[in-house]
Amino acid sequence: GFSSGQATDAIEKIVRETLPEGMVFEWTDLVYQEKQAGNSALAIFALAVLLAFLILAAQYNSWSLPFAVLLIAPMSLLSAIVGVWVSGGDNNIFTQIGFVVLVGLAAKNAILIVEFARAKEHDGADPLTAVLEASRLRLRPILMTSFAFIAGVVPLVLATGAGAEMRHAMGIAVFAGMLGVTLFGLLLTPVFYVVVRRMALKRENRVDSHDQQA
């Protein structure tokens, strides 16, 4: 079968080739809404990241720590796009819903590392030691929850029958995105955490030095 996006693209191509010069066509109803939603996908993804950032900033009482969590979100989007492209799918509204879901899933894995690293820092460890210990301690929970979720979306990836293209589109996006989040999150979240914390500590030291001089 073909997705709705592929079908509309094929129809548009046929219509452009057959309509006389000067005549145009417009989509209505569900297809029109899908086209409009496709144009706003990037803005919706950015809004989801912004909302997640504000929630994390309130939770951590810090403007810097949320960056260590959310910098992995673009990697989840890239992994999902690659998965959709490899599978021959298209960027329809169900794929875009999968992209938004991945923001929360990507943040979830990173939070497990950042929360434990933050606690280790409060106990006196430096950022690098803290995040390495946190990564070691949270490796198994992250892998278990990630693989459980990935296994849970396999039925969507392998869906058949009526409406299968909708479930398939979302399943592929989330499946590929979670694989990327699991791999890149374990490798890059500690790096992001160390960079963000060192920048924050340098800034705090400059502020303290300035206050002492004043």
From TrEMBL:
The keyword Transit peptide does not apply. Keywords: Membrane, Transmembrane, Transmembrane helix. One of its GO terms (cellular component) is plasma membrane. Pfam families: ACR_tran (PF00873). InterPro entries: Acrflvin-R. One of its GO terms (molecular function) is xenobiotic transmembrane transporter activity. The chain crosses the membrane at residues 40-58, 65-87, 93-114, 142-164, 170-196. The keyword Coiled coil does not apply. This is Efflux RND transporter permease subunit.
